[in-house]
User: What shape does this take?
Amino acid sequence: MTNLVPNIAYDYAELAKVSGIELPTPKTEAWKYTRLRDLLDCPYTLCTPSSATGPELPLKADVIHISNGRLVSALPQVAGAEITVIDHVEEKTHHPFAQMNALYLTQGLQITIRRKLSRPLVLNYHMSPNGENGFYHWRNIINCEKDSSAAIIEQFTYEGEVKSCYLANLVNDINIQAGASLQHYKYQNEAFKANHVALHEITIAADGKYESFCLQKGANIARNETEISLNGEGAEAVVNAAYMMNGWATLDTTTNVYHYQPHTKSSQLVKGVVGGTAKGVFQGRIHIAPNAVCTSGTQLHKAMVLSDDAEIDVKPELEIFADDVKCSHGAASGEIDKEQLFYMRSRGIGEEEAKTLLIDAYVTDVINHITDSSVREWFKSLI
Amino acid sequence: MAQPDIIDESGDKYKYGFITDIEADTAPAGLNADIIRLISQKKEEPEWLLEWRLKAFEFWQTMSEPHWAKLAYDKIDYQALHYYSAPKQKVAPKSLQEVDKSLLETYDKLGIPLKEQEALAGVVAVDAVFDSVSVATTYRAKLAEKGIIFCSISEAIKNHPDLVKKYLGSVVPYTDNFFACLNSAVFTDGSFVYIPKGVKSPMELSTYFRINAKNTGQFERTLIVAEDDSYVSYLEGCTAPQRDENQLHAAIVEIVVMNNAEVKYSTVQNWYPGDKDGKGGVYNFVTKRAACRGANSKISWTQVETGSAVTWKYPSCVLQGDNSVGEFYSVAITNNRQQADTGTKMIHIGKNTTSKIISKGISAGFSNQTYRGLVKVTPQADNARNYSQCDSLLIGANCGSHTVPYVENRNRNAVLEHEATTSKISDEQLFYCKQRGISEEEAVSLIVNGFCKDVMQHLPMEFAIEAAKLINISLEGSVG
Amino acid sequence: MNTPLLEIEDLCAEVCGKQIIKDFNLTINEGEVHAIMGPNGAGKSTLSYVLCGKPGYAVTSGSVRFKGKDLLAMSVEERAREGVFLIMQYPVEIPGVPTTTFLKHAVNAVRKHQGLPELDTMEFLKMVREEGRLLGIDNEMLKRPINVGFSGGEKKRMETLEMSILKPDFAILDEADSGLDIDALKVVAEGVNRLRDGKRSMLVITHYQRLLNYIVPDFVHVFADGHIVRSGNKDLALELEQNGYAEFVKEK
Assistant: This one.
């Protein structure tokens, strides 16, 4: 880790440059639709510590509080898991934000799941900007040992000035060993001028299972990027997401699923609702390696556009090098269903209420895929 | 049961791989302003066109070759190519009888019954482009009665300079992309079609392109203008002889469609694909674009792509007029070491514009194929509609099939749907056919033709039959 | 009369490494109709696929002779051209391939094998339309892609039509009654019965006795645990209807 001087405003792009890291430019294909300019606009200082914590989740869980990118509570004793604090990591990929994350790591956790956990582990990230434009880099290294199973929930919230501009750069390195399973849920509701860049790098061994759902509601620019390698036969991944935004945000859901072995399976369902001048971005790639036969990969993105100035940019991609596969993708975008709206109004429901009901139903459709019922109910309460 | 064996000698079966032996008038290799002046001079062009070419050349020198497509090929040495080659003939032919006999034989081998057609009296008018210079245009008189202009672009520059000047580069400006820019600087011939107001072309217009000379780039340029309330169906067929070197083909097709007019543009592309090891073959970098300028105008692209070693081609529709319609129907087949990166762009600008994309890709052997498409809805394009379907079929374990659609929606009223699937020919289907006594090769051909049907049905009848045959030839030996 | 058409001896076969057919023996003479009945999951369909040579169904030992020739040495299409026809339980859909095109390819492949001249389009259409009419298949249906969007009943009628135009020496009916209402069942059974000419043989695979009221077999066999456990005449089917298969199914 390289030390940064507190209270100094760093130009993030400049910091990357002097560190030999190339941040994406408007010409970088993988960042084509996400306007990084806005993210790099203001200089950031390293977040000052805070002890404020985020709202509790309405579920029985082991909770770890992280505030302004630092741990603020004692680590809980979780039967079947081992959790330690880390302050440096090495980044193996060329992902520029992950490289920045490693080089200037604020703090992170090493989480080892040894067996089936009895209740979810919640990582409750909270931001209390105190008038500064702060940034933090957080990383979790999660190792799910053979045949273990766990649910990890990440929540991102803030307090104070709604117009706070800050940057959260997060990385999850997740390794799911043979027969293990991980349910990974995320709720992102950052301040509406804040920026949030998250990368989840997941490797899954034979018969391992990964199920994720991410709901994004906040931030100015938020990118939730998932990269999955299905490395063993029988490995399976479900990557679902929803986003809802009425302001000017860019909400980016990017997935890369690599099927490296035969008999692997992946599915993605992403639904978005954008209003105002918001922009929804979905980039999804299913890659099937040569000889990865008997695989199936599906991908569906649906978006609802509520205003004249909102925008949807979609790039679902199939990259297939094996013949015995079943892959499909679909993308649809359109406005709220007028027939449905009319039907509800003809039954006496007011237009705004009807719209709300329809939007709820639209997003709930994805939430219903969550296997854990208490998590499912919690997400329903958030929309 | 054994998996279909993909390694075979099918690359040597290119049916059109003969070379016509006629003297050609060829410019020295290389590209510079003098070569461009030479081309312009040989073609006795007006000054404005030479200036336009030189401007394009100047701009081209500031550009670099695009490499975003999923294509891997040897570096093209633009200075090693010849940019002008014309069959040598003392006097320009006045009728088919005067055309070099060996040339006509070539067309016969290609299956264009030029002579027959005059006898058959008016089904298709053919403008044959042979190494960039149009040698014979039939049925011109009959078309002229209706006011339709169908001639080589060189003739159009001479005889209809105002029309050419008005529309040339208006859909694809020379600044558009690297290959289009190169074409603008050096294009040698191509076709020109002008359909006046209210006229429906009484026959399908057809051009055959063929690359003959060694180391020759073919840079033809086609311009079609359909005035208000007009209609034309245009067919384009392409072949090239079998050569070890790679030949470069960088063409442009520009189409302008006015109020209530409709243009159907069908292509069967069968350039030499290289041999089974990927040696030789045509590099096909083509810019095709239609502007639906008028209200209620319609453009329909149908393509069957079986040839070329490398294909880079995205026939596009710019839907400017209200209620305009764009369609793209494509079958692309790659075998052996062929690579194709092809698709379309639908740009919705006018209100109530609709577009439809049906793309069927078949990859066999060691080939790689990418569907790349863009559907873009601008903020003012209220009620835009798009439906896209891209299906890919894989034959054999060593090929690749990729789908890269881009959807950019900036209008709340737009309804856009995209679907794509990738699969192999199902074992169940093969078993069913074989249980009824049908051989594997025949079964694959049946299933593949069935897979392509939604596209093939948009081709004019005689073209559809040829295309179906081509599909079978292209896939020969890709199965067991 | 007693000329053997199909002779199965000590046949063993497996699917995905699991043995399904064990020491199976059966001889079918020319003109005979045999019914094989058995509990669900006993491997009745496997037997039909093994006889047709479906990929993935591996014969591990035993022999099958058809008209004296080694059936197992033949490819799927050779068996079909020799005269083995399977009415499938779930006929597959082939998008874009018109039914008539498909049938014409099949008919001519078989005719070519038999040394007969190929039918031209007119002759072929005439024949298909006539046979189709008997089965309630109209011209519109013949133009549709083969099996695509067909109802269960339409699919089975199409299978029967294919059989009646390919005129095989030996037909296997794999659960030909599944998904059929009584009227459709009658149409299919009539179609099948029209082809019973004293020379053509059939193997009727079914779970229920119902179909055998319409296609009356000469022999009935009970299939369990990979082979025939009991044989009899058509009355055996009625007995099975009464008592079920319980006595034949071993505790696992």
